[in-house]
Amino acid sequence: MAIDRGFLGYALPPFTVAASLERVTRFARAIGMTGEPVTVAPPTFMKAVEGEGNSSRRMLQAMGVELSRVLHVEQQFDYLAPIRVGDILLVDRAVTDIYDKRGGTMEFIVIESSISRDDGTPVGRSRQVILVRNPTAVPA
């Protein structure tokens, strides 16, 4: 079943994420950082921020996409400012493109996120590409 192109522009309500000392430290330890106390989050912390509350899963479910057909194929980040312990982050996520290849057997959903501090300072952007396999499509 093809993804409804009417979902182009679909967005979750903006949500906030607290970059607490505990959360940033736990993330840093999980990726192998040890030693000094953590005051600035590692850049990859942005992935955890954008995925808060299973936001990607919620977007796909709203679009009627079966999770068993999904593959995460690309992730890109633009780092604009460091995320510091104590920051309250505002996350906006939206579907910015939906396209297919191979006669619809492979459909792609592009989700872009912008992350800023609660004072409006942008800290980063991300672009995630998700492949949805559609084995019932007949290639042209």
Could you characterize the architecture of this molecule?
The two termini are 15 Å apart. This protein has helices at 21-30, 45-50, 55-62; strands at residues 15-18, 70-79, 88-101, 106-117, 122-133. Strands 1-3-4-5-2 form a five-stranded antiparallel β-sheet. A hairpin with a 4-residue loop joins strand 3 and strand 4 (106-117). The chain has a single domain (8-133), classed as Thiol Ester Dehydrase, Chain A (Roll), CATH 3.10.129.10. The protein is of the alpha+beta class.
Major sheet: arrangement of strands: 1-3-4-5-2
State the secondary-structure class. alpha+beta
Low-confidence stretches: none
CATH topology name = Thiol Ester Dehydrase, Chain A
- Our measurement of the CA-to-CA distance between the termini, rounded to an integer number of angstroms, reads 15 Å
Described by the principal axes of the CA atoms, the overall outline is elongated
Which CATH class is shown? Alpha Beta
Query: What is the CATH superfamily?
Result: Hotdog Thioesterase
Order of helices and strands: EHHHEEEE
Mean of pLDDT? 92
The share of residues in extended strands comes to 35-45%
Biggest sheet record = 5 strands, antiparallel
Labels describing this entry:
140 residues; alpha+beta; Thiol Ester Dehydrase, Chain A; 5-stranded antiparallel β-sheet; 3 helices; 5 strands; elongated
In short:
The protein is an alpha+beta fold and 140 residues long. The protein is built from three helices and five strands.
Write the layout of secondary structure elements.
Elements lengths: L14 E4 L2 H10 L14 H6 L4 H8 L7 E10 L8 E14 L4 E12 L4 E12 L7
Antiparallel strand pairs: 1-3, 2-5, 3-4, 4-5
